[in-house]
Amino acid sequence: MIKTQCLAAATVGKVLAGASLTEVLQEVWRTHVDLSGQQRGAIQDLSYGVLRFYGQLDRLLGLLLNKPLRDRNIRYLLLVGLYQLGYSKASVHAIVDHAVSATQVMNGNKGAQGLVNAVLRNFVRQRAYLLERAAENEVGRYSHPQWWIDKLHVHYPQSYQAILEAGNQHPPMTLRVNRRKISVAEYEKRLNQNGMDTQRLWNDALELAQPVAIDRLLGFTQGLVSVQDAGAQLAAPLLDAHDGMRVLDACAAPGGKSAHLLELAKVELTALDNDSVRVARITENLSRLELDIHRIICGDAAHPAEWWDGRKFDRILADVPCSASGVVCRHPDIKWLRRESDLSRFGEKQRKILDALWQILTRDGKLLYATCSVFAEENKLQVEKFLRHHSDARLLPLSQVETIDGQLLPNSHHDGFFYALLHKA
């Protein structure tokens, strides 16, 4: 446990300094090749857990310390210890003892060891009182930045608390069956025969009662199934693409929605993304599923002149770059890396992409604007602005699911998404 505590603390520190949690963990795996699978799982769980509840843990630490802690490494180690004491099943004695030993590894100062021991044992003794005090502060209660809480409170006064709580849950594991290879009923039957209970959601998305490792997922290597959030599985059906149509997936990587489009209809699909590394993943995913695609292009959706062949598209999916505020249960680092000022930057990029793609959509065509955000600036307000500036655009009703003006709020079954289906009249 000592090594996992040290590496988890170092990971949390790098993320709070501005790095992506996914990238930091990948670097940990590359640097520490001797880690066992169990150690990797523990480091990942601790890192995700601390960032998921960082607002509460930071508040608790402030209540437990008499003065600010200068040694940041010890601060991050204490956050890991507090998370373990609050949310893990490990024994209190083991957590505290190993944290004290980890302090010696990270800082040989005996005073630091005494501090770690005193802080963690003090939390154990006063746990109920400290948790109550931490919850008096909204950041401590909801573990989101204050600006984030305030913004959701304004836009969703009746449901902002549920949105914040959903962001702190562990995400479900939801599957999309490749219907070109097997029916949903048959695949569900095979899962049940192998002891994996499922629940059907909309569009026959299958939610597993208990998540499993990809290598244990029946038929994954053979292309029978993909892992995709139920909210994300709405995109392809909403776009309403039919056999023979020219379709563009404009921000396609890693290719989940492109694959879904090809599973549902025999379309001439072009997949576009501006990240060359992620573009390679589109090819990998479609190859595993044995799906044929017309073209895969590395290019900028906001500048079609650089890659467009001059033939307009019947359908365009614009799953644009955004704050990713609707998927923080999967990426808890986003809460602490985002700044309120980022929303205007994303908004400008989204506007440019939407305006550019509208020019290459055929008359009577449809464009589906999508984000994984819950902020109105990127969603409803962005679409309203677009409609005011494009007299040939009509907003169509969404037929697949009930939303709040296109906004799908996150809950225990899916992430938060926004969809707007635009018709070129």
Automatic annotation (TrEMBL):
Q: What is this protein called?
A: 16S rRNA (cytosine(967)-C(5))-methyltransferase
- Could you tell me which CDD domains the record lists for this protein? AdoMet_MTases (cd02440)
Segments spanning the bilayer are: none
Q: Which reaction does it catalyse?
A: cytidine(967) in 16S rRNA + S-adenosyl-L-methionine = 5-methylcytidine(967) in 16S rRNA + S-adenosyl-L-homocysteine + H(+)
SUPFAM superfamilies for this protein: NusB-like, S-adenosyl-L-methionine-dependent methyltransferases
Membership in a protein family = Belongs to the class I-like SAM-binding methyltransferase superfamily. RsmB/NOP family.
Going by the UniProt record, its keywords in alphabetical order are: Cytoplasm, Methyltransferase, RNA-binding, rRNA processing, S-adenosyl-L-methionine, Transferase
Q: Where is the SAM-dependent MTase RsmB/NOP-type domain?
A: 163-425
Protein residues bound to S-adenosyl-L-methionine: 251-257, 273, 300, 319
The lineage's top-level taxon is Bacteria
As for subcellular location, the record says:
Cytoplasm
Main EC class of this protein?
A: transferase
**Catalytic residue list:** 372 (nucleophile)
User: Per its database record, what is this protein's job?
Assistant: Specifically methylates the cytosine at position 967 (m5C967) of 16S rRNA.
Keyword S-adenosyl-L-methionine on entry: yes
Q: What is its EC number?
A: 2.1.1.176
- Record organism: Nitrosospira multiformis
UniProt-listed NCBIfam families: PRK10901.1 (NF008149), rsmB (TIGR00563)
